[in-house]
Write a structure and sequence with these properties.
Blueprint: E1 4-8, H1 15-24, E2 28-31, H2 33-41, E3 47-48, H3 49-53, H4 68-75, H5 81-90, E4 97-100, H6 105-110, H7 115-120, H8 125-135, E5 141-143, H9 149-159, H10 164-193, E6 206-211, E7 221-225, E8 237-240, H11 246-259, E9 266-271, E10 274-280, H12 284-294, E11 302-306, H13 312-318, E12 323-328, H14 333-339, E13 346-349, E14 361-365, E15 368-372, E16 383-384, H15 392-405, E17 413-416, E18 421-425, H16 432-442, E19 450-453, H17 461-469, E20 473-476, H18 483-492, E21 496-499
Parallel strand pairs: 1-2, 1-4, 2-3, 4-5, 11-12, 12-13, 19-20, 20-21
Antiparallel strand pairs: 6-7, 8-13, 9-10, 9-11, 14-15, 16-21, 17-18, 17-19
Helix pairs in contact: 8-10, 12-13, 13-14, 16-17
Length: 507
């Protein structure tokens, strides 16, 4: 039975109807500050916190509810005679419901508010009230989300109280909220101290959507969002199509990461998080056609990312093949009309210009988490180590292929020609096999192509395979104990070779 409720909220969404319901149920309402004024102005009688505690708000509202007469009323365990005896001795009446939500620290953080605004939006009393009520959920209902008001109303109407199982769920939600809130505050201070790897790493993610299933139909899944970053796969607007799947999101994220590497019109095709084709062109249509020709087989059922507004001609070309997802910064009306004729196509809009280079790379492993800074360094040097230097065209293609190979699962090899991939070898356990794969896929296109390797060549065998296929230039990190052997083979075939001094493993 709810006899007394404390209400102190920043977000007053739906509060008036909820408070009116409690008042009509003869619940005594205690409130503070702006919430008390809001309720009184709307004809709902309240007792102020000051009336209960006999102590005024101080420090410009920094201290309002932090008082034994409030927290004793919330924390008392009704099953313990000693607790009830002490309350009676001190003249404290129990509080059966706490309705509290928090200062908008997250909103201020996302908006890059001033330090003064940030500090003043660190809520102290709110989390304390929420945690106290949640701790004592067997006796107290904690309501920290306006979306839960209808649940509480229905339970009181139906059962005359908020049931224990519901109070337990509300308590869990309360601790999830305060934990998330504190993680954002900790992150704000971590931004200021510039500490990348603190002793206690707190991560704040909010539920974005539950998914139909995970990588496979027997797995449950959900997507969580970090609201701090824009231009991410979680920041897209879906213009058309059914709900994104777990795999759609993973693949679209991979495609988006690659397309952001390029300033020229670019098209990226992805299957199973690996690119199957990447190309740049004078126009978006040219880029898409070159990307498609790079691997017209694998792109079937794939994801395409583009870094320009999709025009009618490009949309018409895309509509001729089966795609799962298209992601771009915008779409011409006619292009959108064409693409929306494909009922199974998901159409996403996103800010392509946001790189988010400060976002940490997180990877779950059994029993823990691997955390690293993003792979945002292209190279430390560009040093030609062979007798022949690359031509301007070869160098342009080498740098293009180098940007692509960093997004391919290791061991990775990329063949490219005229700013388009002609062969991509991914995820092999040695460097020879992906090279052979690239040469086979490229066929005659390998002749005159360039090659990028995400790590050094431990043996010259892969270089020889590429050379015999007609590859004319290679870009790689260097650093192998057999570098001289590799360079010797390159010179024998008149191949230009560039060392970057930077490795791009992707596991």
């Amino acid at each position: 039975m709810v006899k007394r409720a404390l209400i102190s909220v920043y977000d007053k969404t739906s509060l008036l109807d909820f408070a009116k319901f409690l008042f009509e149920q003869n619940v005594e309402i205690i409130s503070s500050g702006g919430t008390a004024r809001f309720l009184k102005e709307n004809g709902i009688p309240v007792k102020t916190v000051e009336e209960i505690t006999g102590f005024p708000e101080i420090l410009e509202g920094r201290v309002k509810t932090l008082h034994p007469k409030i927290h004793g009323a919330i924390l008392a365990d009704r099953s313990k005679p000693l607790h009830l005896q002490q309350l009676e001795q001190l003249g404290i009446e129990t509080i059966d419901m706490v309705v509290v939500n928090l200062y908008p620290f997250e909103k201020m953080y996302i908006a890059n508010a001033s330090d003064e605004e940030m500090i003043e939006n660190i809520d102290i009393g709110g989390p304390t009230l929420i945690r106290a009520a949640a701790k004592n959920y067997k006796n107290v209902a904690i309501v920290c989300d306006p979306k839960d008001y209808p649940i509480v109303v229905d339970e009181i109407k139906q059962y005359g109280e908020v049931r224990l199982e519901t109070r337990l769920k509300l308590a869990q939600k309360a601790f999830e909220l305060t934990s998330y809130y504190d993680s954002i505050v900790a992150r704000y201070f971590r931004d200021k101290t510039k500490e990348i790897f603190p002793e206690f790493l707190t991560l704040g993610f909010k539920l974005h959507q539950t998914l139909r299933y995970g990588e496979n139909p027997h797995q449950m899944a959900a997507a969580y969002v970090d609201l701090r970053y824009e231009g991410t796969i979680m920041d897209t607007t879906q213009l058309w199509g059914k709900e994104l799947s777990f795999n759609n999101i993973a693949d679209a994220d991979a495609a988006l990461s690659i397309v952001k590497e390029f300033t020229q019109p670019c098209a990226v095709g992805v299957k199973h998080t690996n690119p199957c084709g990447v190309a740049c062109g004078e126009t978006l249509l040219e880029a898409f056609e070159k990307m498609y020709e790079a691997d017209p087989i694998s792109i079937f059922g794939g994801i395409v990312a583009l870094n320009r507004t999709v025009d009618e001609k490009t949309a018409e070309k895309m509509s001729q093949i089966f795609l799962e997802v298209v992601i771009a910064p915008d779409y011409d009306p006619k292009a959108l009309e064409i693409l929306m004729k494909k009922k199974n196509l998901r159409i996403l809009k996103v800010k392509i210009d946001r790189l988010n280079q400060n976002e940490l790379d997180l990877r779950k492993v059994s029993g823990g988490l691997l955390v690293q800074t993003p792979d945002s360094t292209d190279y430390n040097e560009l040093r030609c180590v062979t007798k022949r230097e690359p031509t301007p065209q070869e160098l342009e293609d080498l740098l293009f292929a180098w940007k692509v190979v960093k997004h391919v699962k290791s061991n990775a090899i990329v063949l490219a020609k005229n700013l388009a991939t002609v062969g991509i070898g991914a995820g092999q356990v040695n460097r020879l096999w992906p090279t052979e794969h690239c040469v086979r896929i490229a066929g005659p296109k390998a002749n005159g192509a360039v090659l990028a390797s995400d790590a050094f060549f431990p043996f010259p065998d892969a270089v020889e395979v590429a050379a015999k296929a007609g590859v004319t230039a290679i870009i790689q990190p260097g650093g192998s104990i057999r570098d001289e052997e590799v360079i010797k083979v390159a010179n024998e075939y008149n191949i230009a070779m560039i060392f970057t001094g930077t490795r791009h493993f992707k596991h």
